[in-house]
Specification:
The complex is a heterodimer of chains A (about 220) and B (about 140). Chain A has about 220 residues and is mainly beta. Chain A has 1 helix and 11 strands. In chain A, a hairpin with a 5-residue loop joins strand 2 and strand 3 (about 55-75). With about 140 residues, chain B is mainly beta. Chain B is built from 1 helix and 9 strands; from the N terminus they run αβββββββββ. A 9-stranded mixed sheet of chain B has the order 1-7-4-3-2-9-8-5-6, with no helix packed on it. The chains are: A mainly beta (about 220), B mainly beta (about 140).
């Protein structure tokens, strides 16, 4: 999916510069909720409208995402461990909270001046937040450990991602030229790094990731 | 747009379903104490306004396996209740013996081979999902 996104994004940006596109700037504030978790995000995108009818949008921007989770399971994050249940252990965070600032990419399509859909994703940034206690679960054994949000965020291919990265599939409706409402499916990665490499088998690991699927709603302002 | 909002409300409601509670029907795991050696025992006490009662007994059986037996046991109900052997009542380091089979009755839980019982003084009834202590038994 992400590979396809990058291909489309590369193609669209090359077309954008070739066609002297119109520019539209959006700012949005969204709130998302899922099972025992939620997030609020503020984002700003500088979008280029492409094509003869200016229906395609490609944008670059930034996003601040604050995540709140209660009793959330995090699993081994490194690509060499993630995705293989025999290699992954869990970190159960009774209370998770972190804030991420990321550069982000947007792709959109406007069916009409009032209605459009799109996808955006964080690409690079940093995360801050306090240390929290969690319980590391390894088979039938467990122990209390301290973890803090992984500081550096980067979007890569597959499970090589690192840190807190937000993404949305959204539909947006504009009430007028300035204001719109956005409804989205939000897929948010958050990550904790434990104080010590608490997982030792099959290799030492201190990074644990949660993948949150949430529904979000927000308002958009055109600048 | 109204349809999209309706779908989002449905998704939100679906994401807030309560956790499954622990079974309440009485269980009566068979255990012959006359062929086993009692290692340690303690009485259950409730915690955090939850009620847990009965005894917790650690036995070594004739084949060398060790078990935790909950006898005359009753507990308040809750989601995702587990039976732990723990170093303390905060579950700082523990062995998970499994999901609590029922809130009532005699129950037997096998202790994994290789577990150093000297490290684990307490038996706990612990809500894993919400990290809440329901009951403890000091078996020292």
């Amino acid at each position: 999916m992400r590979r396809l996104f990058f291909i489309i994004f590369s193609f669209a940006t090359s077309v954008a510069w070739a066609q002297s596109p119109a520019r539209v700037n959006h700012g949005s504030f969204t709130g998302a909720i899922g099972s025992g978790q939620g997030s609020v995000a503020v984002e700003y995108f500088h979008n280029w409208q492409l094509g003869q009818s200016k229906k395609f949008e490609v944008g670059l921007g930034g996003r601040l995402t604050s995540y709140f989770g209660s009793n959330q399971y995090y699993s081994s994050a490194p690509a060499s461990l993630a995705g293989d249940e025999t290699k992954t252990d869990s970190l159960l965070m009774a209370s998770a909270q972190m804030n991420a600032v990321n550069l982000a990419i947007n792709l959109g399509y406007r069916f009409s001046p009032k209605f459009g859909v799109g996808f955006n994703i964080d690409a690079l940034g940093f995360t801050f937040g306090g240390s929290k206690e969690g319980r590391y679960l390894n088979g039938n054994q467990g122990q209390l450990v301290e973890g803090k949000p992984t500081s550096f965020n980067v979007l890569l291919i597959g499970n090589n991602d690192r840190g807190t990265l937000n993404s949305e599939f959204y539909a947006r409706y504009f009430f007028n030229e300035r204001w719109g409402i956005k409804l989205a499916y939000q897929y948010l990665f958050t990550e904790y790094t434990t104080d010590v490499a608490v997982q030792q088998q099959p290799e030492a690991n201190d990074r644990f990731r949660n993948k949150a699927s949430m529904v979000s709603i927000g308002v958009t302002k055109v600048f | 747009m109204i349809r999209l909002l309706a779908i989002s409300v449905i998704l939100l409601l679906a994401s807030c379903q309560p956790e499954d509670a622990t079974p309440t029907g009485p269980v009566n795991d068979m255990f012959d104490a006359s062929t086993a050696t009692l290692l340690r025992e303690g009485m259950w006490m409730g915690a955090n306004n939850y009620s847990v009662a009965g005894s917790a007994k650690l036995y070594q059986q004739s084949d060398g396996t060790r078990v935790l037996v909950l006898d005359m046991f009753t507990s308040s109900n809750g989601p995702d209740l587990r039976v732990y052997l723990s170093t303390d009542v905060a579950a700082s380091s523990f062995v998970n013996l499994g999901k609590l089979k029922s809130t009532n009755g005699q129950q037997v839980y096998t202790i994994p081979a290789g577990t150093d019982l000297n490290q684990f003084r307490f038996a706990l009834i612990w809500c894993q999902q919400f990290s809440v202590l329901f009951g403890k038994a000091d078996t020292q």
